[in-house]
Amino acid sequence: MKTWIATFGLFTLLASPHALALDGNAQAGGQKAAVCGACHGVDGNSVNPEWPRLAGQQASYIREQLAAFKAGKRVNPVMSPNAMPLSEQDMADLAAYFSSQQLKGDEADPSLYKAGELLYRGGDASHEIPACMSCHGPEGKGNGPARYPSLRAQHSVYVYSQLKAFASGDRKPLSNDIMQAVAAKMTDEQMRSVASYVQGLR
After folding, report:
1. Where exactly are the structural domains of the chain?
2. Domain boundaries 17-99, corresponding CATH code
3. How many CA atoms lie within 13 A of 170 on its CB side?
4. What torsion, rounded to 10 degrees, do the Cα atoms 149, 151, 154, 157 define?
5. Mean local confidence (pLDDT), 72-89
6. What is the mean pLDDT of residues 149-155?
7. What letters, b where the CB count within 10 A reaches 16 and e where it falls short, cover 41-72?
8. Stated pTM of the model
9. What percent of the chain stands above pLDDT 70?
10. What is the distance between the alpha carbons of residues 36 and 32, in angstroms, rounded to a whole number?
11. DSSP-assigned beta bridge partners for residue 193
């Protein structure tokens, strides 16, 4: 367990110091978000469970992911081409806009969320799985400075798919290998349970 605690602090910057110093303008971001809204919803609350909700997401995390798609460090057939033309200011503005939107959500699956709650809050020491809230917070709001994303009210279908992607190596970590290492030790049932729990987390 000591290894996990030590690893939580590791963090590498993907964007340049200049990019991080840029202030995002939410109003300008709202004007630039028309294309994003087709998938993620005009206000960042996507209706398709396979596309993540961006409303209320940590601005630093949104900026990091957009930069990763633009740089080819994260690949998606829809997001990659849409991120390519974005400037650093565009990313900052879009992040400011979506992070300022009111998050909406769905209820958790009553047959799964209890097990998910136990894992999210207490982890599974027998399999060296730390509590999810260690990084994502007790209310699932994430950690801006560390760029750990908010998970609360996120679609369970999307969370499950990302856990599977981390476990298989299809999604590579940008900062450290915490998620890849953790997801690789989770059972399919644990992934479904914690994904359901965070969907209902407010």
Report:
1. 2-8+105-200, 17-99
2. 1.10.760.10
3. 8
4. 90
5. 97
6. 98
7. bebbbbeebebbbbbbbbbbbbbbbbbbbbee
8. 0.89
9. 90
10. 8
11. none
